[in-house]
Amino acid sequence: MIERNIKGGTGVLIKYKRNWEVKSSEITSEKMFKTRRKFLRAALSSAIAIGPSPIFGATQGKTNIVSTQSNVGKKYLANNDEPTDYQSITQYNNFYEFGTGKRDPAENASKFKTRPWAVQISGACEKPGTYGVEDLINFDQLEERIYRFRCVETWSMVVPWVGIPLSKIIDRVSPTSHAKYVSFETLHDPKQMPGQREPVLNWPYKEGLRIDEAVHPLTLLTVGLYGALLPNQNGAPLRIIIPWKYGFKSIKSIVRIHFQADMPVTSWSESNSNEYGFYSNVNPDVSHPRWSQTKERRIGEFFKRPTLLFNGYGELVADLYQGMNLERWY
Ligand SMILES: Nc1nc2c(c(=O)[nH]1)N[C@H]1C(S)=C(S)[C@@H](COP(=O)(O)O)O[C@H]1N2
Ligand SMILES: [Mo]
Fold this sequence. Notes:
By secondary structure, this protein is of the alpha+beta class. It has one domain: Sulfite Oxidase, Chain A, domain 2, CATH 3.90.420. About 20% of the residues lie in helices and about 25% in strands. The protein has nine helices and 16 strands. Strands 7, 8, 11, 12, 13, 15 and 16 form a seven-stranded mixed β-sheet that branches. The chain has a five-stranded mixed β-sheet with strand order 6-5-14-9-10. It has a two-stranded antiparallel sheet with strand order 1-2. Strand 15 (about 295-300) and strand 16 (about 305) form a beta hairpin. The radius of gyration is 19 Å and the shape is globular. Residues about 1-30 and about 40-75 have low confidence and may be disordered. It binds the ligand Nc1nc2c(c(=O)[nH]1)N[C@H]1C(S)=C(S)[C@@H](COP(=O)(O)O)O[C@H]1N2 and molybdenum atom.
């Protein structure tokens, strides 16, 4: 067991095992994980010797994804939870732009173009502008974070994400004092996203966070999983991961980040405000109108487990919601 302090957090120590060292139950994904990890390590040593080298293997087009991976191994871990296998993480998705079935995104997103990709940053900040992914994210600073991920539909996974704290990007554009909230939008491109040809949601997909949630050290701007670039169905080229909230807050394929004074409209609360509140913190005590939220089924497991308040990240995030009635602000 290793102990690591959460930087900038509440100072709580999280204990975790280094999963890849623990057990070698020979599931394919774990092998792949180890192979990738070796590859990352190799890239790291050659980077030290000859300067940065590509770590993510053959990437699409002429992307210039390089890293010295100085942060590989720096992890925020979901206690002793084993990562869910790669297959499930990448074949069982919610990404309505590519269809409403769980298998649709893997099938329909394979040709989705994620480079070049620009993110427009606007609103209450000092450095608004349009940033390419590679300008926005310093690929030398990527971190791996193994997080529990809980869908409002009551299934859950454990995913080794790769990304950078969203706070680093937010700091760079210097929000003003009017920036009480930040909103995000997914690409709107019905030509590429067949799901957008149907009025399932009010496209583009929109999400939002309060600014303190957005800059919380757990909130990750994510570009990869299992040590490789995000597959398209998981929200390439960049998405948010907020581990203490239901999965739908973790918006995919982001093209717009906007700072504002008022609480943003979000796609799910817009489509059904009775079922999906703005905060959407994982909370076993507040049931969804159509089902209980007390338990969850971890993909790959048979028995259900109890759902934990804030998905188990309560010690780290509870102070964000002090004094708020979580039954009302669900
Ligand atoms: N743009 C966009 N982002 C999205 C969704 C979506 O349909 N469109 N689905 C959300 C939901 S409901 C979940 S549970 C997660 C699923 O992420 P995953 O496919 O990586 O597991 O993405 C979220 N982000
Ligand atoms: Mo979800």
